[in-house]
Design a protein that fits this description.
The structure holds two protein chains of two kinds. By secondary structure, chain A is mostly helical. Helices cover about 80% and strands about 0% of the residues of chain A. In chain B, strand 9 (about 260-265) and strand 10 form a beta hairpin. The chains are: A mainly alpha, B alpha/beta. At the A-B interface, helix 6 and helix 7 of A face helix 6, strand 6, helix 7 and helix 9 of B. The structure holds adenosine-5'-triphosphate and magnesium ion. Magnesium ion binds near residues 40 and 219 of chain B.
Amino acid sequence: MFFENLSEIFTTPKYLDIFFNGLKLTFIISVGAAILGLFLGVIVALVKLTPKENKAMAIPRLICDVYITIVRGTPMALQLFIMAFVILTIRGFPQEITAIIAFGINSGAYVAENIRAGILSVDIGQTEAGRSLGLSSRITMTKIVIPQAIKNVIPAIGNELIALIKETSIVTMIGMQDLTAAAKNVGAGNNLASYFAPMVVAALFYLAIVYALTFAIKLIERRLRASDKR
Amino acid sequence: MISVKSISKNFGDVKVLKNVSCDIKKGEKVVIIGPSGSGKSTLLRCMNLLEKPTGGEVWLEDKMITSADPYLHPELVLESATAKKLIAAGMESGAAADKIIAEKLLKKNEGRAFAAALSAYNAQNTIPLNLARQKMGMVFQHFNLFNNLTIMDNLTLAPVELKLKTKAEAKEKAEELLERIGLTDKANEYPSRLSGGQKQRIAIIRALAMEPEVMLFDEPTSALDPELVGEVLSVMRSLADEGMTMVVVTHEMNFAKNVATRVMFMADGVIAEEGTPEQIFTDPRHPRTRQFLHSVLNKD
Ligand SMILES: Nc1ncnc2c1ncn2[C@@H]1O[C@H](COP(=O)(O)OP(=O)(O)OP(=O)(O)O)[C@@H](O)[C@H]1O
Ligand SMILES: [Mg+2]
């Protein structure tokens, strides 16, 4: 029964189509949110790392603190609902955009914390040595601190991306047809009338994506380590 | 060369430096000694503003690195609203300035004239911090070589980034410095492959690559295994022989005796005593100095 259903999924154009479209949507939301999240995360991390004495940045720092607190303190599903039913979709934005923005904003907070932790983990002596030579804080950051921080940050950001991809599955809750919804749809009574095989197919797709990403991150890590021969 | 004028430094409520003044003249080798926690590192780090003094001024030759401390300038204080009020009330200007300085009233609402006088003074006398730091080399207890760069890149990064030298010139200078300390073969290694003594010698020539006018050392041998101390001290000694102006915080009393032109003894955030090495080591005046020398010299 399971194997018959499995072969039916892969031989019926309609089911393949549903899965393909679901995969496409999951991919679009993940990539869009990852780009937005990385962008936001870098900016928020840099703002939060400005020295306390820099009064001009006091308000941006406060905004970033509030942002991180709210994002990390509330459920993702709720954030998505607010984005859809209160802010964006209800004003006519396409659902894809809503999802990308909701997940991007969520991911940005976690990425920011990862980047900040990575930069803070670099010995303060490295910065002091750079500054004592007369280098500006920008050059010290870009030539000395960030190259050393990246090694610590890449694995954490990789994990964040993996979590993001899996988390996008909650878009089914606002009726979007992503990979998870596709499995449900194919398994429904008017189609296969059995959920087991389509769920397994969806799971395999997620696993393949996560595995590919994990592999890519390992590759990058190895490259970084090789480049400083330590 | 470096003038420290009445600096104080507080960490929260802890007063680590209390109104410390000193002058480092060109060619001097000043060694700072004193018990742990007395503020030696903090004083040294205030000289290149790695720590920002809470009050007072630091000057490099005829330029100020900090911004002006109004309390050190009676002529500026006279421009303040409070001073003008006191003078209008019949007080003499000198006494008015003294009174304000004594009471340290100068915080806010001292008027445009005062703000303008202060910022004009700053504009005329300050040197950009990064420029000042180029002229002051610093060597740290824990070396702080750039871990992501080869030794060669450690030596050439700053001169090239700051456009003081072309890449080729910086490399030539670095090779010359490496040869001087006998580590030419390490040029393409990363810092993690070096011994502590080698790292510290590289850290010294990294500072020298900027061709500084004065070198600051904060316990350069304290993190080293005993058998590696000598090689670092001998580089420092040769630097002293060449006439480099040096300020050295150290527990190496023999270095202080043989190389210093002046020894400062710090205790509890002040310079308790200073003098020639002969005077400090054979005839210390201050009881704290005697007690300190007694404990360190008997340990050796
Ligand atoms: N960043 C800081 N925050 C808070 N307190 C500090 C800080 N740096 C130094 N202190 C305190 O200031 C005091 C003086 O410190 P400093 O490092 O100048 O002493 P030191 O004379 O160099 O001692 P040592 O011989 O142990 O190096 C100490 O009590 C120390 O705990
Ligand atoms: Mg110290």
